[in-house]
Write a structure and sequence with these properties.
Strand content: 15-25%
CATH topology of the largest domain: 2-enoyl-CoA Hydratase, Chain A, domain 1
Number of strands: 9
Number of domains: 2
Radius of gyration: 19 Å
CATH architecture of the largest domain: Alpha-Beta Complex
Strand order of the largest sheet: 1-2-3-4-6-9
CATH superfamily of the largest domain: 2-enoyl-CoA Hydratase, Chain A, domain 1
Order of helices and strands: EEHEHHHEEHEEHHEHEHHHH
């Protein structure tokens, strides 16, 4: 049976593909939420996985919430206000919580429209690459709701408050080039080259020591809300550990010997 989130491993990469093209890869259902949590757990517990790539099947990255379900008051959109609160907390909000705990670098390969929660899913990743067919919209106001999955926290940290406010208050969309101009994506590539570019970037990340990659990501994330002195303390602690790893010695030896290093996560 087809799963709503396909998981593929290769070249130290874990590729997650949203696989519900009939709904343009809407983010809904316990099956999908649990699949994201399981994928994050796998990446966190297996040092052989050194980067995660997220993309969508078909023409869309993700349409976000299922608008048909909204109209019919189904799933997490049904019930009393108190019930809806709980359904968000135990439903779609499991995705940002999972991504916040993801230890390895993540790349969103945005192959088409990333709308509402789909835009926020891209923002949960560390790096975003867009195809020339990508569209981004923080469009919750257009359907009379707010960002229920953390978009108000995620988006301003990427594009700045003013740009995030313009996107959230108008619901207007950005094409791929506009997204690159405001820093929402790192680069734009032709549609046919998107996954090649994402996998290439993932492999360039994955050729580095797996433990150091995780510590580097943790420092970058904590630096978003901690004081400089706190980050300096964390950096010193991680550095002390890193200097005693076999991978550090291998990296230095390979550099001096002008060869490619072979890292083992030790």
């Amino acid at each position: 049976m087809d799963t709503k989130l396909k998981v593929e491993r290769s070249d130290h990469l874990l590729v997650l593909t949203l696989n519900d093209p009939e709904t343009c890869n809407a983010l809904n259902g316990d099956e999908m939420f649990a699949a994201f949590e399981a994928a994050v757990h796998l990446a966190n517990t297996d040092l052989d996985i050194r980067a995660v790539v997220v993309t969508g099947e078909g023409t869309a990255f993700s349409s976000g919430g299922n608008v048909q379900d909204m109209r019919e008051k189904k799933g997490m959109f049904g019930g009393t206000p108190d019930q809806i609160v709980e359904q968000y907390r135990t439903g779609i909000q499991r995705i940002p919580r999972a991504f916040w705990t993801l230890d390895v670098p993540s790349i969103a390969a945005v192959n088409g429209p990333a709308i509402g929660a789909g835009c926020d899913l891209a923002c949960m990743c560390d790096i975003r690459i867009a195809s020339d067919r990508a569209i981004f919209a923080e469009s919750f106001v257009r359907v009379g709701i707010v960002a229920g999955d953390g978009g108000s926290w995620l988006l301003p940290r990427i594009v700045g408050y003013s740009q995030a406010a313009e996107m959230a208050f108008t619901g207007d969309s950005l094409n791929a080039e506009q997204a690159a101009q405001v820093g929402l994506v790192s680069r734009v590539v032709p549609q046919a080259e998107l996954m090649v570019a994402a996998r290439d970037l993932g492999r360039r990340i994955a050729r580095n020591p797996p433990q150091v990659l995780r510590w580097t990501k943790r420092l970058l994330k904590e630096a978003q809300h901690e004081r400089l002195e706190t980050i300096l303390g964390m950096a010193a602690a991680y550095q002390a550990i890193a200097h005693h790893t076999e991978d550090h010695l291998e990296a230095v030896s390979a550099m001096l010997e002008k060869r490619n290093p072979q890292f083992k996560g030790r």
